[in-house]
Backbone:
């Protein structure tokens, strides 16, 4: 059984569902550590006091919030924890919303929820009710001394918990300046572009897309390990396409040929 | 408008639209700095060679990768550049998918794409992409490279603007086979009651109704500390186990939800002593919200019970 990272209860109405939280995603980005190019030795990050120019042991480092230029308010661990809320291991569902109404931009991290001790029955019940209604429970959740807004929904037999971004963390589209063309795209252009989209339309299958960059980095590592010299290829500049209609036509022809 | 993070072009068939990338998320987190306890001076991080015990300038740092046999390969920035795909300034659209087919678990960071420059042809091509994707409710799947890393991205239209989201790869989502997904299928009567309760507690999704209390409380704690006040963490309350009788809990909840009564989840304090204000039925967040309105001092560090006490006073 995979280790859980948090145990608690989801409460809706007077119903309580004991749950365990598991990590659902992991970055597979190739990680390197810093090394000194001269001798290949590891690089260490050392903390220095900017005033005394002396190394400072970790025990003497505190967290400060800058309230004015060079004026810091120092908070200790307990004071930071005070802001997290009461630390109850409980997610109180405030209400259930239509899961499809939550725009994808709100979703941040995802976790799997498993049934907690003696929670098999209530877990199944909440899952089935959410699956049937297509709803997600919105509530708050405290994790590592920080409170998050979360959505709990059913996904292929498993309950998932998403942490959500707050509305004020999102940049409104109206903040983005977009100059309007003096003449909008014509009906023929829209029609042709729609055809092109239809030709290139496919069912979304996540496993169709591999992280080619990750593979390329690992390949460079392998070649370098064999003592190969790594050469960077020159890249050609791409040109602009001035005639929209002609380009669309050519694209459509190309796309159709490609699908035959 | 904020600074763009990347400029290039989005390529759709043979149509190339020059675009700039902007973050769609702003960082409102409360950030702390590391300080030296003794004199309050900011801490600087310096890079040292662990072998020579000497500070190392940035240019002399490479990227080490551990091989299985305890050996390491060292790559330079230049070596890594060789791994970057050729077309580094283009978002290549590979296909179009229906937005609702893409599970939110794949979404990572959201951005906006805006057209670059005033050239009529580019603005029209941008508008064309917006118009046609909006009318078909489809999103484009593509790849692009930013700061040497290649991303799989979904481009769709949000409020008339092209919105780009970086995506996780399928193998970055962990399998669920080890997750305990509970017991047998519940009885129909139970599911019906649970569905009725979910619907009784239903509301429209309205993101503006949720405030980041954590951020507010953290700023309040900082303000109080600045004034020299003491701060303590509230006592933790118990989460509790499953209800002894599921059907009874569902029925009672449904009744209360329909009659507009609240739920006293702690199962205590319902002795009528503070009847009338219904404070014991509120969650800590709801109580905190009230305390904020009434400007109760020290509210950020109060437990649920303390908030009830302060508010009923």
Residues:
């Amino acid at each position: 059984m995979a280790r859980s990272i948090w145990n608690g209860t989801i409460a809706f109405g007077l119903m309580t569902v004991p749950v365990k939280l598991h990590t659902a995603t992991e970055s597979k980005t190739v990680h390197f550590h810093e090394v000194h190019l001269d001798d290949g030795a590891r690089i260490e990050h050392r903390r220095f006091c900017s005033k005394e120019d002396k190394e400072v042991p970790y025990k003497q480092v505190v967290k400060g919030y800058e309230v004015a230029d060079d004026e810091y308010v120092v908070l200790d661990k307990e004071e930071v924890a005070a802001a997290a809320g009461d630390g109850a291991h409980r997610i109180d569902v405030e209400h259930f919303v239509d899961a499809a109404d939550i725009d994808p931009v709100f979703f941040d991290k995802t976790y799997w929820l498993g049934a907690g001790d003696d929670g098999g029955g209530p877990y199944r019940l909440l899952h089935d009710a959410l699956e049937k209604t297509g709803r997600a429970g919105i509530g708050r959740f405290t994790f590592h001394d920080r409170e998050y807004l979360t959505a709990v929904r059913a996904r292929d037999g498993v309950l998932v918990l998403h942490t959500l971004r707050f509305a004020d963390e999102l940049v409104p589209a109206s903040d983005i300046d977009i100059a309007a063309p003096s003449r909008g795209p014509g009906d023929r252009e829209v029609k042709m572009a729609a055809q092109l989209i239809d030709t290139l339309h496919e069912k979304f299958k996540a496993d169709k897309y591999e992280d080619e960059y990750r593979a390329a980095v690992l390949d460079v590592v392998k070649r370098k390990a064999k003592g190969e010299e790594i050469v960077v290829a020159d890249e050609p500049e791409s040109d602009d396409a001035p005639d929209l209609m002609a380009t669309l036509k050519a694209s459509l022809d190309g796309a159709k040929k490609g699908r035959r | 408008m904020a600074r763009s993070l990347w400029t290039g072009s989005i390529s759709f068939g043979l149509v190339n639209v020059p675009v700039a990338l902007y973050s769609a998320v702003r960082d409102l987190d409360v950030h702390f700095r590391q300080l030296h306890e003794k004199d309050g001076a900011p801490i600087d991080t310096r890079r040292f060679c662990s072998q020579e015990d000497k500070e190392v300038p940035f240019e002399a740092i490479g990227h080490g990768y551990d091989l299985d046999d305890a050996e390491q390969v060292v790559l330079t920035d230049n070596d890594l550049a060789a791994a970057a795909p050729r077309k580094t300034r283009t978002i290549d659209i590979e296909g179009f998918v229906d937005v609702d087919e893409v599970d939110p678990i794949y979404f990572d960071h959201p951005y906006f794409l805006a057209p670059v420059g005033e050239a009529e042809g580019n603005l029209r091509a941008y508008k064309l992409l917006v118009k046609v994707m909006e009318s078909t409710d489809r999103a484009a799947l593509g790849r692009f490279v930013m700061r040497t890393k290649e991303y799989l991205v979904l481009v769709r239209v949000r409020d008339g603007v092209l919105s780009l989201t970086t995506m996780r790869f399928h193998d970055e989502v962990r399998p669920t086979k080890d997750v305990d997904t509970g017991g047998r299928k519940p009885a129909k009567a139970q599911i019906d009651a649970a569905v009725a309760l979910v619907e009784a507690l239903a509301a429209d999704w309205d993101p503006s109704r949720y405030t980041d209390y954590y951020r507010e409380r953290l700023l309040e704690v900082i303000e109080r500390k600045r004034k020299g006040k003491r701060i303590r963490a509230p006592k933790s309350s118990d989460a509790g186990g499953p209800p002894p009788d599921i059907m009874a809990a569902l029925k009672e909840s449904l009744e209360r939800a329909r009659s507009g009564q609240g739920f006293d989840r702690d199962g205590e304090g319902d002795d009528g002593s503070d009847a009338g204000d219904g404070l014991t039925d509120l969650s800590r967040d709801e109580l905190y919200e009230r305390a904020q309105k009434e400007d109760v001092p020290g509210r950020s560090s109060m437990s649920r019970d303390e908030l009830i006490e302060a508010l009923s006073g």
Remarks:
- Chain B has seven helices and twelve strands.
